[in-house]
Amino acid sequence: MAERTATIERVTKETKINLTLDLDGRGQYHIETGSGFFDHMLSHLARHGLFDLELKAAGDLHVDAHHTVEDVAICLGEALDKALADKRGIVRFGWAAAPMEESLAQVAVDICGRPYCVYQVQYQADKIGDFDVELVGEFLRSFSNNARLNLHVNVPYGSNNHHIAEAIFKALGRALAQAAARDERIRDVPSTKGVL
């Protein structure tokens, strides 16, 4: 079987990013974005998605983390889309619920070629340490757009911001692992249209 890997490099006046993704990995990662909390979230995505992820990002963190988070999401989305190639043989849909103490995150994905993000999450404060919680939503929307997938994120309850965000990234990893998995019964593209 063909390897499902991709390497993306993005250089702007705001960020410089090098990212390599292996969809058929073991959940191993080396992540450096300059934001400890963001590194922590991406490590959950890789570990629970069983993706190998190498990521080095340098951004204008003296401004804030917005550009770094958004551009990493762009690169990760592009890498996923590229690694999946024509999407032949994939399951396509994935869903996971991840509890994190008092919080529960539900994530559903459809790797369909039509990006759309629904994000229904309420936080109890604006920051987790020095990380703006609004950047979680920015990451998910940018990732969905560039991976060209449908993404629904719902947190029905939770009171600890860190737990809420962590549950989201864990559930996203599991949902993506399920959707990107190969199924030997699927010999072509999983769509009645014949294309994704």
Keywords, separated by commas or semicolons:
196 residues; alpha+beta; Ribosomal Protein S5, domain 2; four-stranded mixed sheet; globular
Describe this structure in words.
There is one protein chain. The mean pLDDT is 96. The chain contains 4 helices and 10 strands; from the N terminus they run βββαβαβββββαβα. It has helices at residues 36-49, 66-84, 134-147, 161-180; strands spanning 5-11, 15-22, 29-32, 52-59, 93-100, 103-110, 116-120, 127-128, 131-132, 150-157. The longest helix has 20 residues, at 161-180. It has one domain (5-180): Ribosomal Protein S5, domain 2, CATH 3.30.230.40. The strands form 3 sheets. A 4-stranded mixed beta sheet has the order 1-2-4-3, covered by helices on one side. It has a 4-stranded mixed beta sheet with strand order 5-6-10-7. The radius of gyration is 16 Å and the shape is globular. Helices cover 34% and strands 31% of the residues. Strand 3, helix 1 and strand 4 (52-59) form a beta-alpha-beta unit. It starts with a strand and ends in a 16-residue tail after the last helix. 42% of the residues are buried. Helix 1 runs parallel beside helix 4. It is of the alpha+beta class and 196 residues long.
Strand content: 25-35%
Q: What share of residues is helical?
A: 25-40%
Regarding quaternary structure, how should these chains be classified?
A: single chain
CATH topology: Ribosomal Protein S5, domain 2
CATH superfamily: Imidazole glycerol phosphate dehydratase, domain 1
Domain module count: 1
State the separation between the terminal residues, measured CA to CA.
20 Å
Broad CATH class: Alpha Beta
Structural class: alpha+beta
Architecture (CATH level 2) name: 2-Layer Sandwich
Name the shape in a single word: globular
Strand order of the largest sheet: 1-2-4-3
Mean pLDDT: 96
> In sequence order, what are the helices and strands, one letter per element?
EEEHEHEEEEEHEH
Rg to the nearest angstrom?
16 Å
Q: List segments where confidence is low: pLDDT < 50 over at least 5 consecutive residues.
A: none
What's the β-strand tally?
A: 10
Specify the biggest β-sheet.
4 strands, mixed
Please tally the helical runs, counting DSSP H or I stretches of 4 or more residues: 4
